[in-house]
């Protein structure tokens, strides 16, 4: 049944999971950093900054990640910026993820009851102190389930980096398939690996959401 | 004609407008107007609160009493008139809000405690980050004010572990910890049952007895009559009638009479 698929191929796929995780971690860390900036801009008292954040979010959410990957990897190389595929994928995903995380977190911050802002205001907190000490600690709890949910998406989206030659799990599967041509078997194993990575996170996100619902009931 | 339309001196004599505060006025509202969109809520409100005085503002829902309170702490900006608190012009566009809010403590109906922090942390937060007190000093202050409201033993509890009355007393303690010159109370017992109301009112009575300047929006007529130095009755966005607690026994205007008849 396994034909020419050997243990070596399996180990190769297994090793490539590491690169999927590296790219996921990079995309999440950079995207979270950018997303926090987008969140601050989105809730800023300055209208022009809010407008800028809205334009950024709308634009990025309207462009497929694949196109962003092409722009960063192929597009920038025309102007002399020949980035390694990991860096290009990390940057493109940062841009993409920050637009989504910024918007998710904006929703969580805005879901905080107005009296909490008011109470902090009445205690003479500055806007930044109110955010840092009162609003964000509460919003973080609310944002955990959707953030972990989005992390699952990030892990799956890393497969797109295969088109710019970054050897992660999907690309490793393609490479093996090109040599032994057993697409059903190989991509089923690749799919199983993705599932093994994502399923626990999905369950964790779900559990957190349930806990939050119970707490708020 | 509403009482507010007659000459000021006459209205003061008639008890329709709050007279100037007997002592040194710490809060002054003069001819304050405030609208929300096309809905006028305050229509020329004027009154003063002297240092150490306790004033109860009563009136039907929508009479503008809570809005007046919120304007004093600049949670709402006014359209016209002047408001001064402890020498700070609240209506000035360049008002130093931090300075103002260090002088004014406000407690709301819905407590507004920070649910992610313990009782003590709720109190210490502003002491540490706004007043910049060292942790040990902030700890001392928080225990002192908790003792004042009878909740020292609840320092480590989270707000959700407390009753409504206890949460409200923590909210009062949190404001007190900042040592404000004036305390504003916006219907702080409206969400509480009679037993819990009693424990909050006792704390407020102690504060009043201790000489704290207090401005209190309330529906607790018996409490207002017993404890307040003066009572202001607001109706349709105006100061309609003012006086001592006795005015509740002998209302001069039909509006106050109707309000008391409906409420009691």
Beta-strand level of the residues of chain B, as a percent range?
15-25%
Please write the string of helix (H) and strand (E) elements of chain A. Answer: HHHHHHHH
CATH fold label of chain A = MetI-like fold
Largest sheet composition of chain B: 6 strands, mixed
Tally of structural domains of chain B: 1
Please report the distance between the alpha carbons of the first and last residues of chain B. 27 Å
Q: Over the alpha carbons, how many angstroms does the gyration radius of chain B reach?
A: 18 Å
Class of secondary structure makeup of chain A? mainly alpha
Chain-averaged pLDDT of chain B:
89
* Overall form of chain B: globular
Radius of gyration of chain A: 21 Å
What does this structure look like?
The complex is a heterodimer of chains A (217) and B (264). With 217 residues, chain A is an all-alpha fold. Chain A has helices at residues 7-42, 47-61, 65-78, 85-110, 114-122, 127-157, 169-180, 183-216. Chain A is flat and about 70 Å long. With 264 residues, chain B is α/β, with parallel strands linked by helices. Chain B has a single domain, classed as P-loop containing nucleotide triphosphate hydrolases (Rossmann fold, 3-Layer(aba) Sandwich), CATH 3.40.50.300. Chain B has helices at 8-13, 65-72, 97-103, 119-129, 135-148, 164-176, 194-209, 221-227, 254-263, and strands at residues 25-36, 39-50, 54-59, 80-85, 88-89, 104-107, 182-186, 213-217, 230-235, 238-243. Chain B is globular. Mean pLDDT of chain B is 89; it is low at 1-9. The interface between A and B is medium-sized, with 17 and 23 residues.
Quick description:
Chain A is mainly alpha-helical and 217 residues long.
Task: Provide the descriptors you would attach to this structure in a database record.
heterodimer, A: about 220 residues, mainly alpha, MetI-like fold, 8 helices, about 80% helix, about 0% strand, B: about 260 residues, alpha/beta, Rossmann fold, 6-stranded mixed sheet, 4-stranded antiparallel sheet, 9 helices
């Amino acid at each position: 049944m396994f034909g020419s698929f050997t243990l070596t191929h399996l180990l190769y796929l297994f090793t490539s999971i590491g690169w999927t995780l590296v790219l996921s971690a990079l995309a999440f860390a950079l995207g979270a950093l950018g997303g926090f900036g987008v969140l601050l801009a989105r809730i800023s008292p300055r209208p022009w900054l809010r407008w800028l954040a809205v334009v950024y979010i709308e634009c990025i959410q309207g462009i497929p990640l694949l196109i962003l990957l092409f722009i960063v990897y192929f597009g920038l190389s025309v102007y002399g910026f020949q980035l390694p595929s990991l860096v290009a994928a990390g940057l493109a995903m940062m841009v993409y993820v920050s637009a989504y995380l910024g918007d998710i977190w904006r929703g969580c911050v805005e879901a905080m009851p107005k009296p909490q802002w008011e109470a902090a205001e009445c205690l003479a907190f500055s806007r930044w102190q109110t955010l840092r000490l009162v609003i964000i600690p509460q919003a973080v709890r609310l944002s955990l389930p959707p953030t972990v949910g989005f992390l699952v998406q990030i892990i799956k989206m890393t497969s797109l980096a295969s088109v710019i030659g970054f050897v992660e799990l999907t690309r490793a599967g393609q490479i093996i398939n090109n040599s032994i041509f057993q697409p059903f078997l190989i991509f089923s194993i690749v799919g199983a690996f993705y599932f093994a990575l994502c399923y626990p996170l999905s369950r964790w996100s779900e559990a957190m959401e349930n806990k939050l619902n119970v707490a708020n009931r | 004609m509403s009482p507010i339309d007659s000459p000021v001196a006459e209205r003061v004599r008639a008890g329709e407008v709050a007279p100037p505060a007997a002592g040194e006025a710490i809060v002054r509202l003069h001819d304050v107007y405030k609208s929300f969109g096309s809905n006028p809520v305050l229509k020329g409100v004027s009154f003063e609160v002297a240092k150490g005085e306790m004033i109860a503002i009563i009136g039907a829902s929508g009479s503008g009493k809570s809005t007046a309170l919120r304007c004093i702490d600049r949670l709402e900006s006014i359209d016209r008139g002047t408001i001064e608190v402890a020498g700070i012009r609240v209506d000035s566009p360049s008002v130093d809000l931090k300075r103002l809010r260090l002088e004014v403590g406000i407690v709301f109906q819905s407590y507004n405690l920070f649910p992610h922090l313990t009782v003590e942390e709720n109190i210490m937060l502003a002491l540490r980050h706004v007043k910049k007190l060292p942790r040990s000093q902030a700890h001392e202050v928080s225990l002192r004010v908790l003792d004042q409201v009878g909740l020292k033993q609840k320092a480590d509890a989270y707000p959700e572990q407390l009753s409504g009355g206890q949460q409200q007393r923590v909210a009062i303690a949190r404001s007190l910890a900042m040592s404000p010159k004036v305390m504003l109370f916006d219907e702080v017992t409206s969400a509480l049952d009679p037993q819990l109301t009693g424990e909050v009112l006792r704390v407020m009575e102690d504060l009043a007895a201790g000489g704290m300047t207090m401005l209190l929006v309330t529906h607790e007529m018996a409490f207002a009559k017993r404890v307040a130095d003066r009572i202001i009755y607001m109706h349709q966005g105006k100061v309609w009638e003012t006086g001592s607690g006795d005015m509740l026994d002998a209302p001069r205007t039909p509006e106050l009479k109707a309000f008391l008849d409906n409420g009691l």
